[in-house]
Design a protein that fits this description.
The chain has one domain (17-188): 3-Layer(aba) Sandwich (Rossmann fold), CATH 3.40.50. The protein contains nine helices and five strands; from the N terminus they run ααβαβααβαβαβαα. The protein has helices at 4-18, 21-36, 48-64, 75-84, 90-97, 122-133, 147-152, 167-184, 194-197; strands at 41-45, 68-69, 105-110, 137-142, 155-158. It has a five-stranded parallel sheet, with helices on both faces. Strand 1, helix 3 and strand 2 form a beta-alpha-beta unit. Helix 3 (48-64) runs parallel beside helix 8 (167-184). The radius of gyration is 17 Å and the shape is globular.
Amino acid sequence: MGSFSSAFLGESRAILERLDVDVLESLARGLAAVRDAGGRLFILGVGGSSGHAGHAVNDFRKLCRFEAYAPTDNVSELTARVNDEGWDTCFVEWLCGSRLGPRDAVLVLSVGGGNREKNVSVNIVRALELASGRGASIFGIVGRDGGFTLKVAQVCAVIPPFSPERVTPHTEGICSVILHLLVSHPALQSGTAKWESVK
């Protein structure tokens, strides 16, 4: 009988092989177009994806010279908005305060992509409704069926739910792979990571 580790890694390889490479290339080109036009990038994620959002902000700023932000990086403002206004509106109000406009982009990192009917990640849904209404570009890296993000995004990479009992760990793990692919992509990367510069 094979080990759990072998099974998990095998599932990861199978998911990576099923990713749509053309979508990933479109994602890199779309993000580069926003940056090159002087737009900002707002990265939204909840739970583990909020950790990815903060990491991605660092990499997009440092390696790709992108003006990038994540609302979850400012815990004081985030918790004040949740306390005073509610969870469902914490992202949309943050984006309003940032004067989200048509040159900007929103990148969603989410296992399910947001679903109002199931009352899951409604704060992402509300933020995307605002972004759509203001003409901002919308991108996503999501799992399951893509949720609301897939419906409204210009480009959305969907990580296929290969193993139903491990959708979340695989989605979040492969999301990190895709983010590192993007910040290493020649269309986006304009700086060298530290260890690559050390002789």
